[in-house]
Amino acid sequence: MKNLKILFLHPSAHLKRPMYILMPMGMINLMNLLKEQNFQVYAINVGLELSLDSGYRIKDDLEKTEFDIALIDLHWHEHAFGALELARLCKEIRPECYVVIGGFTASYFSDQIISDHEYVDFVISGDGEKPLLELVSATSGGGTEKISSVSNLTYRSSGKVITNPVSYTADDAYSANYSDITSLKHWEEYLKCNIHFYSRGQFWYSYWLCVAKGCVFDCSFCGGGKNAHQQIFNRNHLFFREKKQVTDNIRHLAGLGVHTVNFSHDIQMAGVEYWESLLSDIGKNDIDIGAYIELNSLSTPAFAEKFAETFSLNYSTLVFSPLSGNEEVRAKNGKGYSNSDLLKNVELMESLKIPYAVYFAAGFPFETEESFNETLELAEKLSSGSMLKMIFSTPLTLDPGSPMFNNPGEFGITPHFRSFKDYYERSRKRACGMPFDLYGYHTDTLSPGQMNSLQVKWMEFMKEKFEDIISNLTVSRVNFL
């Protein structure tokens, strides 16, 4: 088999400045999988490079880099334009290379991407471990005769779009390495990145670690829920990685100097036996590290106590996502707990000195201007906590594959985006400085203008409360995303 040179590329959502720098966690595992097979692997995060050098041009980097296969992630729809521009550049600079795209969004729109973008050769849908190895093997001799047998693959043949069945789905028996990022250019600096930006002067390192695949819930707004996994990955259950693998990954990250490991899933979803054993293993191994976990619901007292015992709290955060201050709106969008239970959980965090953050959002299905006032009222009650790191309300954008996208009538919304082209154009307009559709939908109860007004209300609230939140804070705000 030819010793192929394989280039991984993470796009920026904007061509000339960094936007959405965070890389999909699965991309790291795929890099290591190919390294283990002795392929030459190199990775570039375009947003990170733009952060380090505002004059950076990915075209110059591609011209200096030898590669036979370019693997570009299109996980989040925010990268729809940036990912396809990278694909175009790769073909322009190396016409003989194969361009492969994968990720949630690419999987959802695989047929449309292959049909409309001739510079993309292949889309891998769903889990990519086995399909990628099969594809590399099938193309290593310079021909494509074996392509028809590659799992989960969409491609062109004789002018037609061909989609091979999603016959491979990773399960809990698979071995993975999500923690070795040394194939990435400037990987040390990547540890200073959060979801949106790079902080040059940041002295703490954080890293997102995949601990599970799948979900058992279908929150209205989420394109990564139970049904999306069934539709895209052919995955019918949630599984958590073997505890020893997770512990080994965390130990490796601590050895790299990582201060905070950001868990991909709320490990409470795995059951008491799993999280108790995992956290005990971390403690027994004397791994000095903090943790960031976005709770799917609330924390049990036992979990909160074990969390506080296991992790360095100066670099830790538990995150609540009540979505709305109105309990009916919250329940209809996927979160079933009451305001009273949330406030009791916050008291638990305060008593254990666990830093926490709270996320709301504006523009949910079934929300009204009146119900959003309840969000402001709840946020007011929460804003005085001494362990509160931050409280947010962010606008939603319609996720492909989410229940809102798949069943708009059920959620009382009018979608503005239905195709990959819609997401591509939104991303392109934003990258080009043109007006673009922020939300991609409106609801039966809120027009786009009213949705904007809710966000303005929130900004006014935060302008008034921000100094109080900061002054009340008794813990370090380092590591916050």
Automatic annotation (TrEMBL):
Keywords from the UniProt entry: Iron, Iron-sulfur, Metal-binding, Methyltransferase, S-adenosyl-L-methionine, Transferase
Cofactor requirements of the protein: [4Fe-4S] cluster
Entry keyword annotation includes Iron-sulfur: yes
Protein name per its UniProtKB record: Radical SAM domain protein
SUPFAM superfamilies: Radical SAM enzymes (SSF102114)
UniProt cross-references to CDD domains, sorted A to Z: Radical_SAM (cd01335), radical_SAM_B12_BD (cd02068)
Annotated Radical SAM core domain residues: 196-435
GO terms for MF: 4 iron, 4 sulfur cluster binding; catalytic activity; cobalamin binding; metal ion binding
B12-binding domain location: 3-146
Superkingdom of source: Archaea
A Pfam family matched in the record: Radical_SAM
Keyword S-adenosyl-L-methionine applies: yes
